[in-house]
Amino acid sequence: FFSQTITGNFANVIHGLNANHLTDQVIQRSKRMILDTLGVGLLGTSTEVCHKVAQYSKIYSSDTSSTIWGHLDFRLPPLYAAFVNGVAVHSMDFDDTWHPATHPSGAILPAVVALSEAFPQKKKVSGLDLLLAFNVGIEVQGRLLRFSSEARNIPKRY
């Protein structure tokens, strides 16, 4: 499908992922990661930095909107909802971590949830679709981390 460069191989793997690749163990682990991220994100909505980005983001509007976690009456365009929710998760710094340092769920889940909310009512995504999208995001992030010589050198620099 794509050329056989490193990037082409990477694209083939990601493009080929589907719900059949989600084993019971992956599904259970993903649910735990999602629940943890939602909990940390909800707690993070009370931080000063989250309040500031939420106030800043209020200037943006769109016909399509997504929820700000913990505030069902506050909706923003999906890009800004993902931004505010991602800041909420990261502001607590208790979200999951890989080594070298990266926080996979806090970067992926807010985007996946915001996008899933933005779909028209007749095209809503299923829970399995959401789990697949979450895991594709985690896979992309993990592979990019493996490709990065900068990321491998983080522990030596600190």
From TrEMBL:
Organism's domain of life? Eukaryota
This entry carries the following GO cellular component terms, namely: mitochondrion
The Gene Ontology biological process terms listed for this entry are: defense response
Gene3D superfamilies tied to this protein: 2-methylcitrate dehydratase PrpD (1.10.4100.10)
Q: Where is the MmgE/PrpD N-terminal domain?
A: 9-152
* A GO MF term: aconitate decarboxylase activity
* Coiled coil (UniProt feature): none
Q: Which SUPFAM superfamilies match?
A: 2-methylcitrate dehydratase PrpD
Q: Name one Pfam family in it.
A: MmgE_PrpD_N
Q: Give the similarity note.
A: Belongs to the PrpD family.
**What is the protein's name according to its record?**
IRG1 decarboxylase
Which organism is the protein's source?
Crotophaga sulcirostris
